[in-house]
Write a structure and sequence with these properties.
Layout: E1 13-14, E2 21-22, E3 29-32, H1 33-45, H2 56-59, E4 68-71, H3 73-96, E5 100-101, E6 105-106
Antiparallel strand pairs: 1-2, 3-4, 5-6
Helix pairs in contact: 1-3
Length: about 120
């Protein structure tokens, strides 16, 4: 006698950064609300804001509490790569004579319209 396997209905969970829905087994990482807000800020500073703004769900949380939110693999990798990028930028900026803000990292130059 072999018991029949029951499929368990698993509700998808929302990524704390991109807010997409995934199966729970897809979440191998966590970011704090402060880390997620830093990711948004780094992208904004680099002139590449996310296509979605900080959700009201995220803004309702106090980033100083450092609550952990599950995030998908792609968002976790994005966060790690942004940290590497801004770290390298801060290290290279003085050598290149580029101004750096200690609070937000590289200040990207404003693009001007080309005429001609």
């Amino acid at each position: 006698f072999t018991p029949a396997c029951k499929e368990v209905d698993v509700s998808p969970l929302q990524c704390g950064l991109c807010e997409c829905l995934y199966h729970p087994r897809e979440f191998r990482h966590e970011l704090t609300t402060a880390m997620i807000m830093k990711c948004h800020d780094m992208l904004q500073t680099a002139g590449m804001p996310l296509s979605w703004s900080r959700s009201s769900r995220l803004l309702e949380k106090d980033s100083s509490t450092y609550a952990n939110l599950r995030c998908c693999n792609d968002c976790f990798r994005l966060y790690q790569e942004l940290l590497d990028l801004f770290g390298t930028t801060r290290a290279a900026a003085p050598l290149l004579g580029v101004p750096v803000s200690a609070a937000s990292g590289l200040k990207m130059p404003q693009q001007t319209a080309c005429t001609g």
